[in-house]
Specification:
Elements lengths: L2 E4 L4 E5 L21 E2 L5 E4 L8 E5 L9 H19 L10 E5 L2 E4 L5 E2 L4 E10 L3 E7 L10 E4 L6 H13 L2 E13 L4 E12 L9 E8 L12 H11 L5
Parallel strand pairs: 1-4, 9-13
Antiparallel strand pairs: 2-5, 3-4, 6-7, 7-8, 9-10, 9-11, 10-14, 12-13
The protein binds zinc ion (ZN).
The site of zinc ion has 8 residues, from loops.
Length: 249
Amino acid sequence: MHWFIFNSNNEILLKDSGGVPFSEIPPVKCPEGNHVFEFSDGCSCFTFDGTAPENYRFEGLRASYLKLPKEIHYKAGKASELINFDLTYRFCPTCGGRLEFSSPISKKCQNCQKEIWPRINPAVIVLIYRGKDEILLSKGYNFRGTFYGLTAGFLETGESLEECIHREIMEETNLKVKNIRYFASQPWPYPSQEMIGFFAEYDSGEIKIQEEELSDCRWFKRGALPEIPSKISMARMLIDYWDTHRNEF
Ligand SMILES: [Zn+2]
């Protein structure tokens, strides 16, 4: 079976030769009192805060994306979310009773029986295009790097995804969009997010950036894009799709 073993810095144990441990018995022993999660497909995970054994090392979960097959990386993300859930949801938010696992992915209050699932924060991310050959890219203060990215934001209470898209774009850029089209979604467990990707066509307005969030925002032409986000991200998937499907825009 695959073993997803995390330390408390949310780093995952990988083999020096590549991949997560795959064996009958894990390469380190689950510490006494730690919960071992078993998935229905034969994967298991637990936390371990000792040093990595010989021929293994701990590596950041997000960085491990480039070193693991996509489906294994997604499972590692799920494992990390469950461990995070176990550590942070210990008492019932209603009555303060103790929470215990009642299914592989949920806990139940031992006092009032309320069931609790891990929280997921949905966020929209939108590629805005104008005509056949231009897209809007922006640089945010909270981006991890020097690249230009897409407009994104968290869904608020009582809001549809479409309303969220219009609000975020108006707040960040002062633009109106139309023809919103769903593209794909992706778990983003760093932590607890779900990215939901869309295309939207420019409708009207002049760019006026939200200065607390963005340092730059402008239209870029096909073939002359600046540095863009890495392959792991939904932003990059949207940009790559736009770049290779010109007839659909
Ligand atoms: Zn309770």
